[in-house]
Every structure is written in structure tokens, then in C-alpha cells.
């Protein structure tokens, strides 16, 4: 497929994929080895072989690994959702966290926490006592709902790519305002809990979170071959794409559903990680150039790497009071985006 | 009749952009759609391409209503090139032309030798063989227009609809595009409908001409008959006359410009 396109990048593609796999592995290993709790390397090796002390086992298997896996999956979700959204809206600044999907998830999580905390557990005061197991599902529902609203609004107005983007931003702003209003009105000590979730955090993520995300990751990746060719045509004006034989509205909707599914499940699990969905596709395209398949592959790999390393940096810099990953990606992301924009234009 | 329509009206809100428009094409003919700005040429092409649903009337591809066909089935038979189409900047000519094969390969089938041959033929017949790996944003206006025509050719559709394929091109590229259109019609039997502004080019290249005014069809017939009708002067509100430049050349419309004297000092 795409013989002509890959001839230029073709000779490099093998090396790029090799480097991608190597860096991904290295960052996952580093994230497993390094951390605030001091465990000797021998101990870690022992754990990986199935032995090791109870303490080391607990830290590696129950704390670090689920956190890493959740981060990797969420990174893939955000990056891929951003890539797809930028393609179908033909807007290089499109990002699920700017276009309502994250805000929808935020609002539903906020509402959910508020009601469950007030109604069912009025005494609870810490994150651990909250019904956190339900947060991903609540986020997912809210994100899908917001995606649905955006789609319906844009559909009514004529479904042009620009309108979808603007509708998304507008709907997102409204939902965000409502969520912030609720939080402000909530006004108890528990505000910290919601604020931590809002900044996007991998703190205290368990295997449950990873297992929650996994089916969506698999479904999203399995959809890629199905949407691959339509995705290329969705880069064009609707009339052009239709003239090339694309059922534009149907294919647009299918990709949008995949985006909502990936983004809202990830927001539900780890909170809105701003900039991952925006920056990673740009990094991938910068490296891959015109090779579309490679830029898709790089988006997936870099999504995993960026979140894993971002979380590691946050853990190491913050020590016991770790910096949430969402803060790290935002701080590192902005200058990176500016640099990429300068180079590509 | 490869493509025809009757009593087709298209409305944008209150305004009727096309009013009871009818057209029937012969296989392999070149049909020019002419008319003033806003007369409905582009709307007529969109309706023929099944991109706008008419409020009344219908478009038939052979015997089949266009509205009942899937986009893919339609794209195998009919290619449409809108006015000034936009593509992602970094796309190469070859990548653009490959998209023309989508109706044939669909979601999963891999490109085989038939597809590669169609792509090569589309690139060669538009003279783009040497530019295949260039990005579209590196091309001149004429080259870009040819790349788009090439993508439409790769569809191997028997009907080609072109919305002002020569606008924004210099005279050299205009002639190149018109020659290509003529060759496709005569050598490959492709049926072509194009909206075009230059009346002399329309008369020179087309077999029949449809003249539109305010969404209504005012003339449908041979170029020579249009020349004798006086409709051009009337509808375009210009002074001028048709002249015979050479014995075997088509009628040429010669406009008469206003002439002003310098004031006497």
C-alpha cells in the first residue's frame, strides 16, 4: 500500500519503528525502576522473577506497574483521539480536551462525585473512600454524551469541519463552566479531590483502571484498518471526498465515535491530560513527514512514551508530593508545540 | 444516454438557484455549461453529481436515479471536480491521484496492477509523470489543476464533470486542459460536462452548449446555432458579434469595448 509515498521515508521507517520500540521499552523500564520508594535493583529483579520481598512486590506489582500500564493506555487513547480529530476536522489545533469531550467527561465526573459523596457517603473525606471505581464509567458516559451533542448541533448547522470544531469549543466551554460552577458551589474540603482529578493524574491508579481502558484500546486499534482509507479522504473538502466515492457523513461519524470512545474512557480513568492529544500527533507527523502509516504508528508509540515519561518526571521532581502528569504535559507541551509550529510553517 | 436530468430545481433557502433544468447527454460528447456569474452552472453540476438533492425533478445515470446509488457506486461511473478544490498541503501528486482509486479498492482491497495502471495512465495523460513525488504546495496553479484532473481520471469514470477547469490558469495551461478534455472524449469516449466562462473556448471545444440565466435553461444546442441566436449579447449584456476567422474555424465572438476620447486641451 502507498508504495510511492513510502519510498522516501521507506529507508528510514524501519529505523524509526525500531527506535520507537526501544524508547517505549526503555521508558517503561525506567518508570518501573525509579521512584520515591527506594528499592534495590536486585529486589526489583527478584520481583520480576516472581520472588522478592513483600514490600517490593507491593510497590512494583500493585503500585508502579498498574500505574504505568494505565498511563501507557491513556497516552495511546489521547494521542490517537487527537490524531483522528485533527484529521476529520482538518484543524491542526483540534484536541479532545479542547473540543468538549473532556469537558463532558469532567462535568459528569464532577456531578457523579458530588451526588455520591453527598448522598451516600456524607462523612468521607479522602479519595480512597470515594466510589472511584465508577469514575471511569461516569467520565465515559459524559464524554460520549458531549460528543453526541456536538455532532447533533453541527449536523443541524450543516456538518462542515469548521462548524464541528467551533461547536466543540462552544459546547466544551459551556460544560466546563457548569462543572466549575458545581465545584465552586460544592465548596467543601473535598475540592482537592476533584482538583487533583481535573489536573489529570495517574496517582493511585490500579489494575482496575488498566483493565477498564484495555477493551477500548483494543477496539480503537482494531478500528484503524477499517477507518484508514476513509481517514485519508476525510482530509479533503466534503464535496471532493464524496466525488472520490466516500460516504462522507457516515465515515465522519464513525471516526468521531472512535474519538469519543478513546478520549472519554481515558478522561474517565486519568482525568483530562491536556496537550497529549494536541502535541503527540504533531511530533509524529514532524518525524514521519509524508508517510501517513508511519505517522499513525508514531502517534500511538509517542502517546505511550510521553505519558510514561511525563508521569515519571512528575513523580521524581515532586518526590512525595508528586506533580500530576497533566501539569507536566502542559508545561512541557506548550514550548514544544511552539517549536513544532515554527519548524513546520 | 449516460447521464440526463429533467425538471430539476434546486433551492438555497428561498432562492431558486436552478429552475426546471433539463439536460441529456450523448456518450462521448463534450457539453459546455455557460452563463453569467450566479446563473446556476455550478449548482447544475452539483445536482448532476448527486451532491445536492433537487427539490424537484431527478437525475438519471443511465436508467438509475443518482439519488439511489451509493457514493462509491456513483464514483465508479462519474467523477466530479469542483472549482478550486482544497487538499492537505503536504500531500504529493501521487498520493492525491491514488485517492481516485478509492471507489474501486474500497476499504480493504489492496491496490493491484489494474489500479497501478490506471494511476500511471492518469499521471501520464496529464503530463505529471515527472512530478508524482512533489507535494501539491510546491506546484504551480496549472500543475495543481492538472493533478486534480489526474485524480479524477484515475477514477476511470465514463462521465467527467468539471467546474471551471480552466479558470485561474494562464492561456497556455488553459489550452492544455482543453486539449486533454477533447482527447478524453474522442479517444476514450468519456462524456464530459464542464462549466466554463470563456465563450470562444466553449464554442471551440464542445459538441453542444447549455446556456443558463438565473437558474433557467435559455439555450441547448449546437455552438453554431448559439452564435446565430443573439442570446450571448442579450444575456451577458455585451456588445459584440460572431465572426468567422477562417473558413473551417468555429465562430468567434468578438466583443466591442467602449471607446472614450481624451478631452481636448
Automatic annotation (TrEMBL), chain A:
One GO process term, biological-process aspect: siderophore-iron import into cell
GO cellular component: plasma membrane
Highest taxon above the source species: Bacteria
Organism this protein belongs to: Phyllobacterium pellucidum
SUPFAM superfamilies membership: ABC transporter involved in vitamin B12 uptake, BtuC
The name this protein goes by in its record: Iron ABC transporter permease
Protein family according to the UniProt entry: Belongs to the binding-protein-dependent transport system permease family. FecCD subfamily.
Positions of transmembrane segments: 15-36, 68-88, 100-120, 132-155, 161-189, 210-231, 251-280, 292-317, 323-341
UniProtKB/TrEMBL annotation, chain B:
Subcellular localization(s) per the UniProt record: Cell membrane
InterPro entries: AAA+_ATPase, ABC_transporter-like_ATP-bd, ABC_transporter-like_CS, P-loop_NTPase, Siderophore_ABC-ATPase
Family annotation (SMART domains): AAA
PROSITE patterns: ABC_TRANSPORTER_1 (PS00211), ABC_TRANSPORTER_2 (PS50893)
SUPFAM superfamilies cross-referenced by the UniProt entry: P-loop containing nucleoside triphosphate hydrolases
Subcellular location, principal: membrane
GO annotation, cellular component aspect: plasma membrane
Start and end residues of each ABC transporter domain: 3-239
Membrane topology, from the record: Peripheral membrane protein
Species of the source: Phyllobacterium pellucidum
The protein's name in its UniProt record: ABC transporter ATP-binding protein
UniProt entry tagged with the keyword GTP-binding: no
Annotated GO MF terms: ATP binding; ATP hydrolysis activity
Record keywords, A-Z: ATP-binding, Cell membrane, Ion transport, Iron, Iron transport, Membrane, Nucleotide-binding, Transport
GO terms classed as biological process: iron ion transport
Presence of the UniProt keyword Transport in the record: yes
Family: Belongs to the ABC transporter superfamily.
Amino acid at each position: 500500500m502507498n508504495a510511492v509515498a513510502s519510498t522516501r521515508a521507506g529507508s528510514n521507517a524501519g529505523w524509526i519503528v525500531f527506535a520507537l520500540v526501544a524508547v517505549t521499552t526503555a521508558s517503561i523500564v525506567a518508570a518501573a525502576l525509579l521512584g520515591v520508594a527506594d528499592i534495590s535493583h536486585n529486589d526489583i529483579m527478584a520481583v520480576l522473577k516472581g520472588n522478592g520481598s513483600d514490600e517490593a512486590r507491593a510497590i512494583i506489582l500493585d503500585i508502579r506497574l498498574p500505574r504505568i500500564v494505565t498511563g501507557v493506555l491513556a497516552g495511546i487513547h489521547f494521542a490517537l483521539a487527537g490524531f483522528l480529530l485533527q484529521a476529520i476536522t482538518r484543524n491542526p489545533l483540534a484536541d479532545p480536551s479542547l473540543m468538549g469531550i473532556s469537558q463532558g467527561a469532567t462535568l459528569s465526573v464532577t456531578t457523579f462525585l458530588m451526588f455520591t459523596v453527598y448522598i451516600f457517603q456524607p462523612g468521607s473525606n479522602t479519595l480512597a473512600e470515594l466510589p472511584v471505581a465508577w469514575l471511569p464509567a461516569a467520565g465515559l458516559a459524559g464524554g460520549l454524551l458531549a460528543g453526541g451533542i456536538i455532532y447533533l448541533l453541527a449536523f443541524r448547522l450543516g456538518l462542515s469541519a469548521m462548524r464541528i470544531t467551533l461547536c466543540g469549543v462552544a459546547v466544551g466551554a459551556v460544560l466546563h463552566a457548569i462543572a466549575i460552577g458545581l465545584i465552586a458551589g460544592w465548596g467543601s474540603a473535598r475540592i482537592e479531590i476533584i482538583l487533583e482529578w481535573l489536573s489529570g493524574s495517574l496517582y493511585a491508579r490500579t489494575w482496575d483502571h488498566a483493565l477498564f481502558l484495555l477493551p477500548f484500546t483494543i477496539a480503537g486499534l482494531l478500528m484503524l484498518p477499517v477507518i484508514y482509507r476513509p481517514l485519508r479522504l476525510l482530509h479533503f473538502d466534503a464535496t471532493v471526498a464524496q466525488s472520490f466515492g466516500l460516504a462522507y457523513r457516515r465515515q465522519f461519524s464513525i471516526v468521531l465515535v472512535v474519538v469519543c470512545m478513546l478520549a472519554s474512557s481515558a478522561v474517565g480513568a486519568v482525568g483530562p491530560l491536556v496537550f497529549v492529544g494536541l502535541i503527540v500527533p504533531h511530533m509524529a507527523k514532524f518525524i514521519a513527514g509524508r508517510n501517513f502509516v508511519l505517522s499513525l504508528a508514531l502517534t500511538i508509540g509517542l502517546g505511550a512514551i510521553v505519558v510514561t515519561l511525563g508521569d515519571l518526571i512528575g513523580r521524581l521532581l515532586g518526590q512525595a508530593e508528586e506533580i500530576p502528569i497533566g501539569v507536566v504535559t502542559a508545561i512541557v507541551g506548550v514550548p514544544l508545540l511552539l517549536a513544532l509550529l515554527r519548524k513546520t510553517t | 444516454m449516460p447521464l440526463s436530468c429533467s425538471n430539476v430545481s434546486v433551492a438555497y433557502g428561498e432562492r431558486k438557484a436552478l429552475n426546471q433544468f433539463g439536460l441529456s447527454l450523448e456518450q462521448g460528447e463534450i457539453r459546455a455549461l455557460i452563463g453569467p456569474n450566479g446563473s446556476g452552472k455550478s449548482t447544475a453540476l452539483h445536482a448532476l453529481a448527486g451532491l445536492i438533492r433537487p427539490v424537484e425533478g431527478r437525475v438519471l445515470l443511465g436508467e438509475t436515479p443518482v439519488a439511489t446509488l451509493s457514493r462509491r457506486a456513483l464514483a465508479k461511473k462519474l467523477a466530479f471536480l469542483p472549482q478550486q478544490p482544497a487538499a492537505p498541503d503536504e500531500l504529493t501528486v501521487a498520493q492525491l491521484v491514488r485517492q481516485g482509486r478509492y471507489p474501486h479498492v474500497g476499504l480493504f482491497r489492496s491496490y493491484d496492477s489494474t489500479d497501478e495502471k490506471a494511476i500511471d495512465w492518469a499521471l501520464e495523460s496529464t503530463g505529471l509523470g515527472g512530478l508524482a513525488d512533489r507535494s501539491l504546495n510546491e506546484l504551480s496553479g496549472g500543475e495543481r489543476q492538472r493533478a486534480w484532473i489526474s485524480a479524477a481520471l484515475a477514477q476511470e469514470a465514463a462521465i467527467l464533470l468539471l467546474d471551471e477547469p480552466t479558470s485561474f490558469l494562464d492561456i497556455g495551461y488553459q489550452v492544455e486542459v482543453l486539449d486533454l478534455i477533447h482527447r478524453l472524449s474522442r479517444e476514450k469516449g468519456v462524456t464530459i460536462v464542464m462549466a466554463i466562462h470563456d465563450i470562444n473556448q466553449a464554442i471551440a471545444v464542445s459538441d453542444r452548449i447549455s446556456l443558463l440565466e438565473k437558474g433557467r435553461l435559455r439555450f441547448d444546442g449546437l455552438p453554431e446555432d448559439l452564435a446565430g441566436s443573439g442570446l450571448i449579447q442579450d444575456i451577458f449584456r455585451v456588445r459584440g458579434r460572431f465572426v468567422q476567422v477562417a473558413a473551417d474555424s468555429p465562430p468567434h465572438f468578438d466583443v466591442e469595448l467602449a471607446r472614450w476620447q481624451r478631452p481636448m486641451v
